[in-house]
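Here is the promised in-class demo. Please do not try to memorize the tokens; focus on the logic of going from shape to residues.
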């Protein structure tokens, strides 16, 4: 999905510093919703969330991947990205995600068990 086509306001909204929520499905269907920091690469249509490999969100995505929703809100402005998340554990993939996170938020604290949830965006909802 080419997210550049979503326009300048959308691009700016996903570059501003906002916390997001990540929604995954627990076994049996109830949602697991947690606050996260996220980055979005408009050109590739990939969002990234860094987390500990032992976190519930990482375990729910697991090796097979999972459908997820990533949402951010600022007053009346909001945007939800839906897609399929996969777990990335490679050192280069984690370092790239950490650099992206640092550019949007601040440098993340050291975490030797860090992994990346890489979300290929398939649908965009919202009013920006």
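The designed amino acids, position by position:
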């Amino acid at each position: 999905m080419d997210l550049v086509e979503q326009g300048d306001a959308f691009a700016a909204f996903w570059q501003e510093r906002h916390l997001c929520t990540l929604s995954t499905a627990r076994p049996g269907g109830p949602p697991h919703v947690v606050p996260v920091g996220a980055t979005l690469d408009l050109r590739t249509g990939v969002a990234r969330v860094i987390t500990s490999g032992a976190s519930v969100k990482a375990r729910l995505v697991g090796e097979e991947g999972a459908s997820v929703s990533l949402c951010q809100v600022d007053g009346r402005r909001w945007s939800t990205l839906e897609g399929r998340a996969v777990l990335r554990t490679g050192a280069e993939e984690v370092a790239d995600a950490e650099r992206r996170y640092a550019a949007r938020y601040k440098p993340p604290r050291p975490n030797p068990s860090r992994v990346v949830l890489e979300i290929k965006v398939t649908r965009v909802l919202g009013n920006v």
